[in-house]
UniProtKB/TrEMBL annotation:
Residues 190-233 form the Threonyl/alanyl tRNA synthetase SAD domain. Its cofactor is Zn(2+). It comes from the Eukaryota. GO terms for biological process: tRNA aminoacylation. This is Predicted protein. Belongs to the class-II aminoacyl-tRNA synthetase family. Alax-L subfamily. Transmembrane segments: none annotated. It holds the Pfam family tRNA_SAD. One of its GO terms (molecular function) is aminoacyl-tRNA ligase activity. InterPro entries: Alanyl-tRNA_Editing_Enzymes, Thr/Ala-tRNA-synth_IIc_edit, Transl_B-barrel_sf, tRNA_SAD.
Amino acid sequence: GDCALVLDRTIAYPAGGGQPSDTGRVVLGDGRATFAVRAVEISKEGVVRHLGRVEGADDDELSASEASVASVFEPGADVVVHVDVDRRVLHARVHSAGHLLDVAMSEIGLGPESGLVPAKGQHHVDGAYVEYSGKIDGLDKEKLARDLAAKMTELVERGGATSAETMPYDDAAAACGGSLPAYVAKDSTPRVVRVPAAAAGCPCGGTHVKDVREIGDVEIVGVRVKKGTTRVSYTI
């Protein structure tokens, strides 16, 4: 099985916010050993754990036992963290597309003022969606899918830089339409993401593209209305 490696800081993204984790490797400063990272997770206490196995410099597996990991990656040792760039970029594109979908909904007249309020999202390569609280009676789901597809194409072609900024709670609430979800602690300094930078903000810790054009083609897979929610599924 996997073992966990904990560092004092890391560039690896832990699974959360509907986005899968990074994968990659942690290499000792002297290059004599590598820890292959299969997944990254974060505890409720904020401890980031890199899950994987130790490999030798010759790529032969040494061991996955905790004792072997501790004997190679000793406390205080210098390491270099490498993430799988292609995976990181792909997940950033999918996640940013989810944020852009909120903009598209607003621009076709189905923003929060219509009664559809962004509630949650899943930004996996397979099965990405954004779910909105509320529903509209008589909604033509096929037409909505077509309208959203056209609007997403327009927005991606229009492009524009994205932004991510950590700010005081009250400022973050103002940037996100006047309020923040209940899970955001009032004594925190939320990170607010805008896709693009001119759009309304959203509290988010995920990875994102630098410019909307980098999202690429977005396909609206379908629209589902069920139990007072409206879910829009998409893929890139």
